[in-house]
C-alpha cells in the first residue's frame, strides 16, 4: 500500500494539482481583496452604500445576509473569468501546430471509382 501511495505521489499530476491548490488559495485571497477593497466600494457608490457585506434583510428572527452573498458571487465571477482567460492563454500556447497534411493514400474504393469512370468514358 505504501509503495502504491509513493507511486501515486510521484506522478506529475498529483504535484501539479497540489501546486494548483496552493496557488488557487493565494489567488482567492487576492480576488477577495480586489472585491472587498476596490469593486464593492465602486458598486457602493452607485447604490449608496460603501460595504455590500453589511446588507441584510431581517424577517422575524432570521437575518439574511444577502450582501455577503453578493460579495461571494462577485468573487466567483471574477475568479471564473480569470481562470477562463488563463485556460484560453494556455490553450493558445500549448495548442499543437497543425501538421503538414500528406496527400491521402488512394484507397481501393478510389481505384474502383477511377476504373468505373474510365469504363463509362470508353462506352460513351
Shape: elongated
Strand arrangement, major sheet: 1-2
Alpha carbon gap, first and last residue: 77 Å
Question: What would you call the structural class?
Answer: mainly alpha
Radius of gyration equals: 30 Å
**Poorly predicted runs:** none
Overall strand count: 2
The pLDDT mean sits at 80
Helix content: over 70%
Total of DSSP H or I helical runs spanning 4+ residues? 4
Largest sheet: 2 strands, antiparallel
% residues in beta strands:
under 5%
N to C succession of SSEs: HHEEHH
Structural features, described:
The chain has 124 residues and is mainly alpha-helical. Helix content is 73%, strand content 5%. The protein contains four helices and two strands. The protein has a two-stranded antiparallel ribbon with strand order 1-2. A hairpin with a 2-residue loop joins strand 1 and strand 2. Helix 2 crosses helix 3. The longest helix is centred in the N-terminal third of the chain and has 36 residues. The termini are far apart. The model has no long low-confidence stretch (mean pLDDT 80).
Amino acid at each position: 500500500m505504501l509503495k502504491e501511495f509513493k507511486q501515486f505521489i510521484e506522478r506529475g499530476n498529483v504535484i501539479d494539482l497540489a501546486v494548483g491548490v496552493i496557488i488557487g488559495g493565494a489567488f482567492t485571497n487576492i480576488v477577495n481583496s480586489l472585491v472587498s477593497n476596490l469593486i464593492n466600494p465602486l458598486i457602493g457608490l452607485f447604490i449608496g452604500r460603501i460595504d455590500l457585506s453589511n446588507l441584510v434583510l431581517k424577517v422575524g428572527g432570521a437575518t439574511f445576509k444577502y450582501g455577503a452573498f453578493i460579495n461571494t458571487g462577485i468573487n466567483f465571477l471574477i475568479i471564473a473569468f480569470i481562470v477562463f482567460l488563463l485556460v484560453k492563454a494556455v490553450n493558445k500556447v500549448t495548442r499543437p501546430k497543425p501538421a503538414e497534411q500528406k496527400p491521402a493514400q488512394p484507397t481501393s474504393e478510389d481505384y474502383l471509382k477511377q476504373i468505373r469512370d474510365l469504363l463509362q468514358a470508353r462506352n460513351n
